[in-house]
């Protein structure tokens, strides 16, 4: 004998079917789910520094839209929180700087070189082999009003082709005698580098960002014996991040009508708007996606 369904039971079965279809297919703007734990929805404290979006924890990346190591934040803003609770920002993938503070209101982050934090080292030398740069696509920038540069010329061997300028004096520290090769080493403000091809005599040329400094007397023995330039290196310097540099998709995603977060893959490409409902929406508007979903649901229910 066939089972007769009441009108109420018929509606209930249709509703359950609708829920099942919606859960399995989503809507046209739905690009799948993501793990909401990858977003810093609340402040995370590493040491004494509070970390919030658009920064992200570099060790907490997840898979989103099929991209492994995706993150909820912006390129160049990944912070490592080490075991001793020291927040570290990698500027170019090689230069690790200690984060001293983040000021969201001023859009600045204060950094210090951990290689020169130890006051017992009177003559610190760079521990990287390239200039400090910023990741491509990063919102960070070196503000001219707050940052100057010191340039190290290491392992310089002069000859009849490359002459040493008479206006510069070598660093008189043993720490510069152990490589990368024999020769003299120098440290100069970037605006005091003499013109000419003499730099080709040096095995390494490294430019480091530092806090804005005043007048420097390069003939002062305190500069070449380490004490003066070391004090410049030990000061914190600030980077800014450019809010106006956000791509239009992210501005739309983060807007008051959406309140989403921007997701990027490990190469820094935007992959979608990470919405509070745990879904990635390709139209970059979390509220619009919810309204479309609700409208479709009501349309089907009204037809029952």
From TrEMBL:
Any GO MF annotation of the entry: polysaccharide binding
InterPro entries: WAK_assoc_C, WAK_GUB
Glycoprotein recorded as keyword: yes
Membrane topology recorded in Swiss-Prot or TrEMBL: Single-pass membrane protein
UniProt key word Glycoprotein: yes
Domain of life: Eukaryota
Signal peptide: 1-26
Identification of the protein by name: Wall-associated receptor kinase galacturonan-binding domain-containing protein
UniProt source species: Triticum turgidum subsp. durum
